[in-house]
Specification:
The protein is mostly helical and about 180 residues long. The protein has helices spanning about 5-25, 30-40, 45-60, 65-80, 85-100, 105-125, 125-145, 145-165, 165-180. The longest helix has 19 residues, at about 5-25.
């Protein structure tokens, strides 16, 4: 069954409006996100459904409701993994890594950064892979392994050059400046 583009945009508008409302610290955001989740499920818009689950997780993270955050994040990871939405899956692994890193659980953060990298490697985006390598380097810095951090940053810079992304190049160079001997 082919998706109706109009309904796809309509379904995604709930998610986007929910994200805007979340910035305004409004519970209306959650209602909009839930409407988007229902609409995208009904209309079989798999990417929007997965993105909306992730947006709901981010809403709960912003509200510091960590049990709901992890619940929705895990649901989102399971769903997008099943649907083989690798680019989105890499983003969700990165979000989970961020969560653990903020709690000084660097080994768990490292684990999810590695998952993000290998997932993005399957997807093929050099820029996304470079971003994951930068995230890995940041985690290695937190673990005190500057040699491994430098190696990841150098690899990230090489990938960023291939992907011709000035922002990722800049992040890699900035990271390298912090780990130079």
């Amino acid at each position: 069954m082919e998706c109706d583009r109009t309904s796809e945009y309509y379904d995604d508008s709930y998610r986007l409006l929910g994200q805007i409302e979340a910035d305004n610290d409004s519970l209306e955001a959650l209602k909009l996100l839930e409407k988007g989740l229902e609409a995208s499920a009904r209309n079989k818009h798999t990417v929007i459904y997965g993105q909306t689950l992730g947006s709901i997780a981010q809403f709960y993270l912003a509200k510091k409701n960590y049990s709901e955050f992890l619940s929705y994040l895990d649901k989102s990871i399971e769903y997008v993994s099943e649907k083989k939405l690798n680019n989105l899956l890499g983003d969700l692994y990165t979000l989970k890594s961020y969560y653990f890193g903020q709690r000084n659980k660097f080994e768990e953060s490292l684990n999810y950064n590695i998952k993000a990298y290998y997932t993005r490697e399957k997807f093929g985006s050099k820029t996304s892979q470079a971003s994951s390598l930068i995230n890995l380097a940041q985690t290695f810095i937190q673990l005190g392994d500057l040699k491994e951090a430098k190696k990841n940053l150098e690899n990230a810079l090489d990938l960023a050059k291939v992907g011709n992304d000035i922002n990722v190049k800049s992040r890699a160079l900035k990271g390298l400046a912090t780990v130079e001997d």
